[in-house]
Amino acid sequence: MSTMETQRLERAAAPAAAGAHVPANRQSDRARPASISGALVSTGRALAAALALEEARGTPFLLVPVLFCAGAALYFALPFEPGWPLLAAALVGPAAARFLVARHRVAARLCAAFAIAAAGAGAGKIETVRADTAMLGSAVSTVLTGRVVRVEHQASGRTRYTIDVETTRRPLLRYAPDRVRVTARADPGIAAGERIEGVVRLFPPSGPVRPYGYDFAFESYMAGIGATGFFLGMPDRQTSAGASDIAPRLAAGLANMRQAIAGRIRRHVAGAEGEIAAALIAGTRAGIPEEVDEALRRAGLAHILSISGLHMALVAGTVMLALRALFALASGFSSRRPVKKYAAALALAAAAYYLAISGAAVAAQRSFIMIAVMLVALLFDRAAITMRNLAIAALIIAALAPHEVVGPSFQMSFAATAALIAAYTAWSNRVSARTGAGRAPPRGGLNAAGRRLAYFATGIAATSLIAGGATTVYAIWHFHRVAPLGLVANLAAMPVVSTLIMPPAVAAGVLMPVGLEGPPLTVMGQGIAIMVAVARWVADHSPIDAVGAMPPLALILFTAALLVATIATSGLRWLALPLALAATLAFGLRTPPDLLVSEDARLAALMRDDGLFAVNRPRPNGFTIGIWQKALAATGYVKPRDRADGKPEAETRFVCDAAACEAVHARGAVVVHAKTRAAAAPFCGVASVIVIADATAANPCRAKDVLVVTARDLARRGSLEVRFKQVGTESAGASGGPLRAEARFALPRNERPWFAHRKFSREARGLAPYKRGEKGRNNKNGKSGKGDKS
């Protein structure tokens, strides 16, 4: 559409979208009450004008990656695995209909939207088939020999290895995973590219700790990791001729170079500061102490540790500014050559080098693509920071790695960037309007310097506030926590990061080949010490942390509000307000579960009215309890009491003996955790929920109003959450009357490729735990060569 046509549409849409001045001779007409039909007609015309204006400004193109990502997210969220015929029909059908209804603009656009979403779902299917990760079905011990792909030195002194499996023995795993991640108690000095051998205890990747939670098996499947575990003893180095293919050798060389860079950094910067410096330069985060990591999370500064858009932008920006300054020294050369393009090209090369030495994690790859799109735009004399460039980057990333669409890194990064671009564009338009009206900014002198300093401080505050607000929703969805003082922390820390941390990091990278990295690393260490001090102070003074789990509907509505607010350029952006209000209501009216059960059937947590929850084990799994506590926004948990104590119990608390644990919810529902079917049977007449930690057990209760869950059920369908609702009503908090237990498992009944391995476990097949010396047939997935050790 031409520029003149766009301007005409803007003038036509202005009265409806922005509110035009009403002539005096029409005010009397406005004063008369309008009919409902007239109001609807006016609203329809205003909406049509706004839509036409959005089309003239190219907004439909920005919706292409949104629809593509929505299709990919829908594919991964389906409760069944769609076949190729269904996906092909979903793509070809709307695409063909698009041409049949080409004369009807609305119908044609809807068909195109469905086709783009179907293409996103197809991309997700292609990635799933391409990954085809061999997943371990059940825990097993074996002697493993393989080639080390990656080495990570942890703060605890342990060393974690990512290993490409070559052989297994005692027993031979007939369907062994191709790649595993195992931990050694100490560092045996084995580097990437070398062969390693040792006795390992391997476990299949676990599912979500709670429904809608982070799916570890899904991430492992997409990363090609088929099992995790640890060495039973110290592994040994095995001699070999080395990898024959060039790709593994290059990967091993890069991995060893990263370890060497991290080692040189630690020699100049000791302690936690050195580990953070190594994480920012070489991407090795495993050595950061947990208490420092937690302080950064509580303060809202954890994004600094992840090599993402901030780091890529600072690296590319530092290189570009330095090169522009050097080119400016040669005025003759600068006047004859496009030095800005030269600087952009070299900044792109620097970003690519940083991507390589930092480990090329997915977040770093995404950030590099975004920076590359913007720098290439500069090479072709286009604006670098535009919503269109962001849309291109999002489309590229979603097409290459669709599973990233449902991950926190992708969502938080693009949400922050989109919000910042939209805010920057609105601010630029306002400044342009003021300048065009004759209000020129002051020049020179102390006043100008003060204004620049004020603009700098305001820019940091606005950036932190806008980016933090846009990403808070996704932080709550994925991590169930917020950083209420994140703005304060970022205001204090970001100037330090931008001046004392990242520029010295770039200088250290340039000077490291000649051995002169010491001075810039020392400066960087001092900057990191300031940042950590800020994080600790803010973390100690943060009033809240966990806010509880967010329901899916609230996430969808919040995302829709963010998209409307950032993509729309006309009065349509005001539609974001009712969407955000609806999302807030959905979040505020959520009903947290009353009971949570782990997927191994060993741990149960019953929510209480005082903000605590009761557990059935005196020493519960700390990792699971930590996630549950944040998801329930609980302040802690209460350990069980021994039934033999004989003390009266007036609060919700598990009372246990050797065979079973029993607790009474505040609304009267009885929850029982039993070890065997025989131990559960006596509670059939009184319990609302019975959890039996025995895969061989059958339902001992005849009554249908008792929810009985066995270890076999949990092995098949993952962790469980239960809500108690009054029979005959939809309310979850009514008093009186019988209660019904409504269960939601973390996994659907139908298989998806990333958790199909669960059906091969002993528990899922209703078998008792393996005992040494047991004789039995080989299991279906061949996790053992002698007997059934899977």
Structural class: alpha+beta
Low-confidence stretches: 15-32, 730-734, 776-790
Radius of gyration: 30 Å
The average pLDDT score comes to 85
How many separate domains make up the residues?
A: 6
Shape: globular
Q: Please state how the strands of the largest beta sheet are arranged side by side.
A: 10-9-8-7-17-18
Specify the number of helices: 24
- What is the rounded distance between the termini? 64 Å
Largest sheet: 6 strands, mixed
Beta-strand level of the residues, as a percent range?
Answer: 5-15%
Strand segment count? 18
Helix content: 40-55%
Structure description:
With 790 residues, the chain is of the alpha+beta class. The protein folds into 6 domains: 1-19 and 41-49, no CATH class; 58-131; 140-242, OB fold (Dihydrolipoamide Acetyltransferase, E2P), CATH 2.40.50.140; 261-432 and 451-541, no CATH class; 552-588, no CATH class; 595-749, no CATH class. It contains 24 helices and 18 strands. The chain has a 6-stranded mixed beta sheet, with no helix packed on it. The chain has a 6-stranded mixed beta sheet with strand order 11-12-13-14-15-16. Strands 1-2-3-5-4 form a 5-stranded mixed barrel. A hairpin with a 6-residue loop joins β7 (595-597) and β8. The longest helix is centred in the middle third of the chain and has 35 residues, at 445-479. It is globular. The model is unreliable at 15-32, 730-734 and 776-790 (pLDDT under 50).
